[in-house]
Amino acid sequence: MEAFEHDYKHGNYESCIAKLNNILDYLPRIAERKESLNCEKDILSNLISCYIALYGYGSREVAEGISRATQLSEALQDNTFIFSLLWTNWSNVIVNGNIIQAQRFASEIVDLAEKHPEDKVIFVEAFHCLGVTEFNAGQFEESARFLKTALQEFQEKNRRTHIQNYGNDAEVLLLSWLSWGNLISGDMQQSEFYRNKLLAALDECTHDSSYAFGYVFNAMNFVFQDQPNECIKALNTLDRTKVEKLPFWRSWGNIVRKWAEYHSHGKLISMEQDIQDFIAFQGNIWEPFFHALRADMKANVRPEYSAKVFDELMENIKFRRPSFHSVPVLYFCCKYYRNHDPQKLKETQALAQTIIEKQGAFYWKDKL
Questions:
Q1: CA separation for the pair 16, 8 (Å, rounded)
Q2: pTM for the full model?
Q3: Cα distance between residue 23 and residue 352, in whole Å
């Protein structure tokens, strides 16, 4: 496992996966059943972490790892492993947009964490899970409360355990979500406070997947604000090479960069393949927002295409439960309609204001 540890530390996840699968192949020959199951449990935990790093929480590889891990958890009754598995199950369903199922998993996770109050890692990850679930449901005030609680309880000595058991540097992820949440709520001072803390944490971050998470989230702050020049600065400030070797994060970074470069330099490059790659890796929760960015890029080049996309996006939001990105999507709809369809602009503004009041997404209150 020393070779694995070396590769994992340096972000060589594909090499890690090959080594772990080789060990899995040999396990039945070298261990008794119970010992073999325990070894397989550890190997699967590491494999899932590598799959998350490379392909995202919603990928097929993660789902397959969860399926086998579920069988193991029933055989071993290991509480830490069961909690880690529940958490990974939760992350897999939430990135695919299944908020109801994610809330069920979050409830189970909190129930299990309450049975082990002495375990700070489990406590932090339980509130992390609750905070992100509420964020994705568009409940930003509740989300911030849970995420702040998790951040307050995070301990430096447990950083490695978070990475090993949950595939993330918890501090980096919590700061990323808090920066976003405060931006959406309209508290720019708190958003910038958490963003600066995030940048400081990224300077010390040695976990490439978590670094990529912070890299993209930092840039997305400026996409939400429709500030392409600042977005490019944010992307260029951090180390792009750590992101490029991770396919899922590379596709997201490409989407953001292409949108920003078009508006800054008039450089129109297709993001279609990047969107397809992202959905294949991560799931469909971000799909409406990415289609809004692509339509925003093409508004002056192919206005008929943009009109069709924005009309479909508005109709979907009108008749479905609002998501965390409903208001920013409607912002880009309004941006297009302002120059092309005054009647639809009024209709979209009214819909957006209703959701803003319901969610507390006050950043966009005066920007439509």
A1: 6
A2: 0.86
A3: 53
